[in-house]
Amino acid sequence: MAMWNPWRGCKKCSDGCLHCYIHKGDSKRNIDTNKIVKTKDYDKPVEKLKNGKYKMKSGIIYLCFSSDFLIEEADIWRNECWKMIKERQDCTFLFLTKRIDRFLKCIPNDWNCGYDNVVVCTTIENQKNADYRLSIFKDLPIKHKCITAQPLLENINIEKYLDDIELVVVGGESDINARVLDYNWVLDIRNQCVKKNVNFEFRQCGTHFIKEGKEYILKTTDLCKQAKLANIDFKC
Fold first, then answer.
1. pLDDT (tens digit, 9 = 90+) per residue, 38-62?
2. Which of 189, 188, 182 is nearest to 210 (CA)?
3. CB within 8 A of 129, min separation 6: which ones?
């Protein structure tokens, strides 16, 4: 999995941020996550070898996974990133955001209906934030849209927002103090995706996982494996 983090650091802004793995990891290293700073990888997509070829290979690039691509503090840098993204038409850049309400303030002048090589994924965790973010998301000029419900904190209905969505990813929280994930919530979102013919992926269980009324405590290393074993992914 290729990653590009032009800056790092983030600020908690949502119910899903409570046990953020970025903040948790930084705390162990005495790093202030609230400071958003450029990284040494800022120019990574356009760096070249001596033979003139790009160092970063073609393919899917996971963008800004140690921050939020739409965070306010990065407004001064983002236009340069858009130029690099546009240059690398051989790559598909995917980013997740909890700040979709800032999207129209953050796009380049030539965005129009969207770049073909950009996938925008809005993250949600409960009904309140799903209604707020997805009501904005559905009307934005984006060619490739995904939804990530992780950590999923309650049963939610997103069926009316699934038009033009390419994929919905669902997962639980991984932390010793993680909030519970009920398997019925996962299945309910899956059913909504099947009904609307939208791809669905169960990415990971939660550390505290309820299935058929019984609560299980799972090891972090087993969360993705157990989700795969459920074998409920849907491809349309």
1. 999 999 999 999 999 999 999 999 9
2. 182
3. 14, 15, 16, 98
